[in-house]
Structures are given as C-alpha cells and as structure tokens.
Amino acid sequence: MKKHLAKFLAVSVLSIVSVAWAAEGQAWRLGLGVSYRDFDDISIEATAIGDSDNTDPAAGPIGLQGYENGEFPAYVGALSVDYAQFLGGDADSDTIDQFSPVLTFEMPFWYPSECVEVGFVSNFQFWMLDADADVAASAVNPGPFATWFEDRTAAPGFIISPATGGGAGLLPGTTLTGTGDIEFDLYELDLGVKVAWILGSRFSVHAAAGPTINYSEVEYEASYTATWTPLLGTADPGTDTDSFEDDDDKFSIGAYAAVGVGFNLTDRLSLAVEGRYDWLSDVAELDGIEVDLDSFSGLIKLLYMF
Questions:
Q1: Angle, CA of 50, 53 and 55, to the nearest 5°
Q2: SS3 for 229?
Q3: In DSSP terms, which residues pair with 221 in a beta bridge?
Q4: CA 275 → CA 1, 136, 205, distances in Å?
Q5: pLDDT tier for residue 180 given thresholds of 50, 70 and 90
Q6: CA dihedral angle for residue 41, residue 47, residue 50, residue 53, rounded to 10 degrees
Q7: Whose CA is closest to 184, among 122, 261, 75, 98?
Q8: Facing residues of 253 across strands?
Q9: 131-167 core/surface letters (b: 16 or more CB in 10 A; e: else)
Q10: How far apart, in whole angstroms, are the C-alpha atoms of residue 121 and residue 209?
Q11: CA distances, 29 to each of 106, 108, 125, 259, 270 (Å)
C-alpha cells in the first residue's frame, strides 16, 4: 500500500517539475494554496449484529446472545433471544480533515486576443480524514437498529425450533452499543486546460476542466458489545463483544470542472479563488462502508509568475 503511495507522490511531483522545466523560456506560474472539500457522504451499510440473520438453531449461534445447541446441556425451559439489524447510517468527519494543501502549476500557451489567455493547469492535493460513528440500542430506545426477540424452549443440549412467540424491541435488560472508525486518505493529481478572461489590469475570471488520477486508502474498524440478563443456573456470561477490521487501496480516474476569479497583487504575484466539482469513476468502499468521492470544493491559491 505504502509503495503505491510513494510511487504516486513521486510521479505527481516529477510531472509538475518536468512541465516546469519544459516551459523554460516562456512564462509560467507556480502556486501554493489550500482547498476545502465537502466529504459529506461517508456511509456505513446495514448489517446483521451477532448472527441476527440466522434463525436456524442447528446452523449455529442465534441472535445477540449467541446461544448454541449443546451450550447448556442441563438446561430445560424457556429461552428468549434478542435480535438486532443495524439499518445503516452516516459517519461524521472532523471539519479540519477536509482541508488540503494545493500545489499548482500553470503555463499559458495561447492568447487569442488581448483579454483572453489559454493555458495548461495542474493541481496536486491530498486529504487525510478520520470519521467515526457511535450507536446504541436498548429496550426503551432501539436507536438505528431494527430489533426484535423470539421465545424458544430448550431441552437438554438443544434449542427447539420454531419459536413459540416473540415481539418487537429488545428484552428488558438488553443493551447494544457499537462504534465504527474510518481512516480515509485521498491523493489527487489533475491536468486541465484553463481559459482566463482578463478584466483590466487587476481582475480576471476563469474556467478550467480536465481529467484527474486519484489514489485512495481506506481503513475501517468496527466493534459492538451486547449485554443481557443471563439465564439463571447456566454459564451464560450475559455479555458479548465482537470486532472486525478491513482496509483497501486503489487508483481511480476522474474529471473536474472549476470556475474562479483572479486578482493581480503585483506584476508577478496573483491571488486566485475557485469553486470546483470532482467526478470519480469509482467509490472508496470496504465490506460495511462506502465513501462517495464526487463532491464540491473551494480553493484559494497564491501564484507567482516566472
């Protein structure tokens, strides 16, 4: 994973340096700035908790309690089991994580008139986000879960199916808490064409568009803890904790379009403000989460003409 990132960073920097070197003898601009990108669509998908999609006692654990055939060989009597299905939701990221530094290279190559400038433009940006979600459910408040319980009967060593009753919600005394943590890194290099309309000696407006290449890394860790009233006379612990994690990295192709305004501070130094939208050919996803990378961003850059 880190080898891919190192190669991508090297190619990005070398691309900008190479174009700058090739532009020797003609005007070009180098800029630094900051961007804010609205990553507002980080989704945690619906999932069963504690094998709650399994209603066949012969197939293994049942519900949050995870009762199994043979677990209580001497127990005979009523047995109630809680079930929970997480309905899905969104993870929240810190605002500061949605800011990125921007390295910009511009090289004008055509002036169709005195007030129009056409050139190449390239930007390199990266974001490192940390998003999380905390959820909880109880008999009083189901939270973001579908919850229900089933009544069964246990014979020595066996849980008898089908259920003899049940209802909506968790049993009194049962609680469920869960947490999910998402670490997401995105690195983006674009190469576009920029058209600027010069308005007097100080101001300009511009539009730019082009393809992007993106490298993303995503890691997801999730855990939950269930507690319930233990069965008397058994080794039922009354609690269960489970966790899992996954990670992935990938390259994807995209495109962007931007509009903005410029202000010449001096003959060589200028300030640019842009609004931009990015489309990507893929989403960053793992088993349980999805990050939609199509989003708006705002950029402010300080450029120097060489």
A1: 105
A2: coil
A3: 181, 245
A4: 31, 39, 12
A5: confident
A6: 170
A7: 98
A8: 213
A9: bebebbbbeeebbbbbbbbbebebeeebbeeebeeee
A10: 9
A11: 5, 9, 17, 18, 10
Distance, CA of 202 to chain centre = 40
pLDDT in tens, 67-115: 888 888 888 888 899 999 888 888 877 777 789 999 999 999 999 998 9
Distance CA 117, CA 77 (A): 84
Tokens linked to 201: 């000696």
Beta-strand ranges (E) seen in 38-174 are 42-44, 47-49, 77-86, 89-90, 92-93, 99-113, 116-138, 145-155, 158-168
Quick check: 245 and 183 in contact, CB under 8 A?
A: no
What is the C-alpha to C-alpha distance for residues 135 and 141, in angstroms, rounded to an integer?
A: 11
Q: Residue 36 carries which side chain, given as an amino acid letter? A: Y
With 0-12 / 13-18 / 19 or more C-beta atoms within 10 angstroms meaning exposed / middle / buried, residue 304 is: middle
Task: State how far the Cα of 213 lies from the Cα of 253, in Å rounded to an integer.
Answer: 5
Quote the CA–CA distance of 158 and 58 in Å, as a whole number.
9
Closest CA to 303 of 85, 53, 28, 72: 28
Locate tokens 């319930």: which residue? 228
**Which of 265, 276, 264, 270 is CA-nearest to residue 207?**
276
For residues 29 and 52, give the distance between their C-alpha atoms in angstroms, rounded to a whole number: 59
**What domains sit in the chain, N to C, each tagged with a CATH number?**
2-45+90-135+178-305 (2.40.160.20)
Is residue 133 a contact partner of residue 143, using CB atoms and an 8 Å limit? no
Query: In which band, very low, low, confident or very high, does the pLDDT at 199 lie, cut at 50, 70 and 90?
Result: very high
262: DSSP letter: E
Q: What is the pLDDT of residues 204-220, one digit of tens each?
A: 999 999 999 999 999 99
DSSP state, 26? Answer: S
DSSP designation for 71: S
